[in-house]
Amino acid sequence: MSNKRLIGPFKQLITMRGLSVKGAISDDKLHVLENAAIGVENGLILEVGLFDEMAHNYDEIDEINEGVVGLPGFVDCHTHMVWGGSRARDYSLRMRGETYEKILEEGGGIFDTVEKTRAEEKEILVRNFQEHVFRHLGFGVTTIEVKSGYGLSKESELKMLEVIQEADVKADLIATCLAAHVCPKEFSDKSQYLNYVLEEILPEIKKRDLATRVDAFIEPSAFPAAVARGYLEKAKALGFELTLHADQFKPGGSELAVELGAQSADHLEATDKNGITHLAKSNTVAVALPGASVGLGMQFTPARELLDEGASLAIATDWNPGSAPMGDLITQAALIGIYEKLSTAEVFAGVTFRAANALGLSDRGAIETGKVADFLTFATSDFREILYHQGMMKPTDVWKKGVRIDKSV
After folding, report:
1. pTM over 0.85
2. 1, pLDDT greater than 60
């Protein structure tokens, strides 16, 4: 049964139509429709145009009674939103000057979250995760990538991925196996642990269709590129898409991501000229995680340089309990925009269609015929106001697959 409806009028509709997947974008390239409307049917965008011209073709009209700006639903292509416990102690230590690596070496950081996540009942993890997703959806994030990586054992990694699969949420969730986050304490040899993941964890994930993507943290303190390469090649041979935590503290991971044809290389705070050149010449999306820069008190990803060299840049939250506890995409996007001197178009692209591309999704991130009907409204008549308020302006309404989300439940 068809549910054809018209939604509008939007004072301004920023469609993100016709913009390049790679390189810099000036604001004059934005497709801005005035007094616009979106026709939806069966969860997809049927047509986009002027409200007055389209209204007579629809029996059902979902009228917007205020002057608003419409944008595509946001895509957060890098999160760690399933976890147990808190890392407030770590944050306090970093404020006093302790480094992320030092805290990890002393058994804190990721290891602390692993211990608490392993011990937490799955029902509680599901409940907390659903709350995270509900908040994210209310802030306009309609598609969310979610990683495992706080289990580091077969039982606990599968438990985390089951949480993602079993969650009763309205956002679309893309699960990624990050069993190669750090080497757990039970293993003294990193290569031995990665073989364990290949032999014991990934086949079960594949069998149960718990995730289609594999990630690895490429750092000397986690998994050096030389150690991780064979693991990632074998994971790819098993049919998994790849994404990498790359160049957060040391360069080199982005080159590995490009060489292996990864969908994205994420973090990149320590990316050097060589890494930037590799990314710019590839189809691997560079994913900036400004929340980690803020949470760790370190430099931002060199977003301006990446774009100017021709790379594709997405922006994600890295929402996790340790290095990036904020979990607010629009705030983080506004911050990296002003510090890295990005255009409004580049920021919006980074949280919509370019972020979707980092997940291998071509059916969302723009408001055009045939795309998933995910879009947002902001209570302003000028799209520039959204980033100007540095995250304080949140969406008034969120539509997921053409249905307005009730943000009160």
Report:
1. yes
2. no
Determine the Cα–Cα distance for residues 40 and 45; give it in Å rounded to an integer. 5
Helix or strand (DSSP H, E) at 294:
helix 290-296
With CA atoms as reference, report the closest residue to 311 among 280, 340, 273. 280
Token output for 185: 């304490």
Mean pLDDT taken over the chain: 96
Give me the architecture of the 5-72+366-404 domain, per CATH: Roll (2.30)
- Neighbour tally for 378: CB within 10 Å: 24
Q: Decide if 371 contacts 45 (C-beta within 8 A).
A: yes
CATH number for the segment(s) 75-358: 3.20.20.140
3-state helix, strand, coil in the chain (%, to 5): 40, 20, 40
**What b/e readout covers 58-81, taking b as 16+ CB neighbours within 10 angstroms?**
beeebebeeebbbbbbbbbbbbbb
* 145 DSSP β-pair partners: 174
Extended strands (E) in 80-225: 141-147, 172-180, 213-218
CATH 3.20.20.140 occupies which residues in the chain? Answer: 75-358
Residue 107 in this model has a pLDDT that exceeds 90:
no
pLDDT at 278 over 70: yes
pLDDT digits (tens, 9 = 90+) for 208-236: 999 999 999 999 999 999 999 999 999 99
The tokens describing 252, both together, are 């080199």
Q: Are 289 and 320 in contact, with CB atoms under 8 Å apart? A: no
Nearest Cα residue to 16 out of 351, 337, 385? 351
How many angstroms separate the CA atoms of 226 and 385, rounded?
46
Average pLDDT rounded to a whole number, residues 365-393: 97
- Residue 355 tokens read as 């972020």
